[in-house]
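Re-running Outer membrane usher protein FIMD to confirm reproducibility after the cluster update. Everything else is unchanged from the original entry.
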Amino acid sequence: MAAPPASRLERLAPRLIGAVAAIAMSPVAWAAATVAGGQGAGTRQPMDFGAPIGESLARERKEPQDGNPERARDAVSDGSAPEPQLLSALDGKAAIFDSYMLAQGMEGITIDTSRFERPDIVAPGKYRVELQVNGQWRGTEDIEFRQVAGRESAQACYDRDLLTRAGIDLNKSARGQDPQRPPNPMPEGLVCADIGNYVPGAELKFDQSEQTIYLSVPQYYLRLTTSKNYVDPQSWDSGVPALLLNYSTNIFTTQSQAHNTTQAYAGLNLGANLGPLRLRHNGSVTWAPRTGTRYQRGYIYAQTDLPALRSQLLVGESSTSGELFDPVSFRGAQIFSDDRMLPETQRYYAPVVRGTAGSNARVSVHQRGFLVYETTVAPGPFEINDLQVASYGGDLHVTVTEANGQARTFLVPFATTAQLLRPGVTRYSVTAGRASDLSLQGSGQYIVQGTVQHGINNMVTGYGGVAFASNYASGLLGGALNTPFGGFGADVTWARATVPNGDSLRGSSFRVSYSKNLPNSGTNFSLLAYRYSTRGYLGLRDALMLHDAVERGAAPDSFARMRSRVDANISQQLGARGGSVYLNGSSLQYWNRRGQALSFTLGYSNQWRGNTYSVSVQRVQNAGGGGALYGGASSGNSTLVSLNLSIPLGKSARGAPVLNTFVTHDDRAGTQVSSGVSGLVDQQGKGSYSLSGTYDDRSNATSGNASINWRLPDVTLGASVGQGKGYRQASASAQGGLVVHPGGVSMAQTLGETIGVVHAADAQGARVGYGGASVDRRGYAIVPSLIPYQLNSIDVDPKGMREDVELKTTSRSVAPRAGSVVMLTYETRRARAVLINSRMPNGELLPFAATAIDAEGGTEIGAVGQGSRLVVRTEKDRGTIRVEWGKKPEERCVIDYTLPARVAGKGRSYEMLDLPCLPMPAGGVGSKKLAARP
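Result of re-run:
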């Protein structure tokens, strides 16, 4: 007797079991494939749970040898087909989805899943993807995929900026490696074509499951740098025209028995940007009842960068760097190299590692026991020139592990001084103008100064310079050495000066410096320097001051000339729990002064059970007579001993108050004891407070102080009060910035050198970056600080903005030029979220996962969820939605909707409607013809 036909439930049972297993094992696998099966008659074979889960969840679509597709379905249905493999998103094979798994109810309508059967088919739209170039991560990008004629899948689109961020040298790719091949430069704008057309040999693959684009590019077309943040100079952004203001204001008042005083101060930094030109000026305004209002002008200059020279050009008032010669303020012009324009791996000194590999070998570089770099090299000589290691030094241990497991290790010494540069890197500066130091009371002399430094190899950096004034000339020559014993620097300066009375001074100055980090002992000599100058030597700044003093009638011998100077900065770690001890200071001696000027600090600090304590001794001794460095200070010595103790009052990692106690003893001022509590007002760290009391044994008086600071999105406010024996004090302060840009005026926190202006229309309340800024009612926010000449990614967090506004782009990347104000536009869409409960006129449920399409525009705006509910976002208050679950006319229906009036203020989370989905008449609905789905 023949078996009765299997019921629908019996046919679905294996699918249900498989679905449960798929969900338990892998949500991705469940979504990407299905239990093999069809609708043929007969009973289903049970799922083979002994087989790999991938083999049980997906079936490979294959045509039988006789070309009959029905036979292929039957073969799958009766289990006679060979066991398939789980499909990859990149293998291009097809998967058959079981549409009954998506049906709502035992007899629910199913949807057409054919467009999901090919994992390599990409639907048009914008995707946020990870970008990998030759296996190296290059960041996150928003990539648009467009439908291209002749292709079943949407094509990834790209522009010149994207390829530049990927590290491709577009100049090389346009020429190609074949000189006979005509150049094919990439056009401007968005390109949706095979990338190999413009970068020969390059391939682009998109893995939908990983949301990653894998870009394979021949090494020839890649820039030498591997820094992921480096951007080609052609893509540096000059920004938009803007006016800038930084302000810092403070008002301070004191009331005492003798008198009352009030003083007000406002520090101003002004700027204007026009194209690549930046104008800057700073000054201060002071006010007091007796003196009134005064304005003190600081510097003013115009500056622009020169990308071709990796340099900056400045015209106006500024100061020399003081790296090789004494720093001097000037009014004139200066051109100097800017290391920030170099790739990140070339900005700071690190040696080049060279060696030879006998096979495909793994090269590992360790510094102080930490793995800081690892790569694979081909057989033969290799060179690693992009190390990013600790800038304060520490020898590099290089291990080369061959393919057969054999390893060898060698040492590359690494100790750094300020003068050491990477091999091949050059740093220079040229200044010409008139000296304008505030300490010069007469008319400034004309000066010319030039310096140059060049990294010769791993061991040696050479440097030199010249400086001239009206009655002065000097030359400097030196070098820096990187040795296993540390970093050494040595130079000699020759100088000749003529004073107004006709005397001529000639002399030399010798300087040596040493820097070394000893990781095994925990000792760090960050600076140990000694300079000796002969009796007739004068530095440029001293020569200018002496010339100015003699012109005003002073005797040449009244000016102190330095004989020797010792600088030290040493720290020692005393084991894991022993704390650390440090010593820093300097000692100076003069030719025409007795004694020495001495200043040093010796200290010790440690932690115990979360409590921090430290003790220090500071000694200051003046030689008398002053000179260039000590400004005529009178002779005298002082010693200050300090003891500090900080105890957290709570277990909270952030915001818990801290009890601070300070005891200081000065042999001149006596002993003071201060104790107080400080902490954060809120968990976000926006506000902080401090309460303290102080006892002074010399005056036998006590005083109390309280202060609070609060960081608002656009300004930081502060206030303090204090009271002591015979006085009362109060103050208030405010710091912030202001930017005038093409979109209007925006307030901000204190501005840095390089600034970003975020524009996201209707996104009021959205948070920008990590600085606490938020988008204002006009759609603007300020990013107060960006890093110039490298890639900056600025994210916008939609939390806090209206519910009916959607950010279509939440991240932008930009490489600004120094001092620029760059505009960052984030596309938004003001659309209301609508939840529609809908059914067919006969009460039948809409198919689960059916697509909701705007009937007029033809764009997808949502999908049908469980329970026959649609979740859509629409910009219109009324319209028509077309619901599709197949290609046949009867597999479509339409919903006409009218939304309630918008509520003023914050948008509602969603609107809820109950509407029927009516059969779609031929030719359209009403008088408007429905747009066909693309």
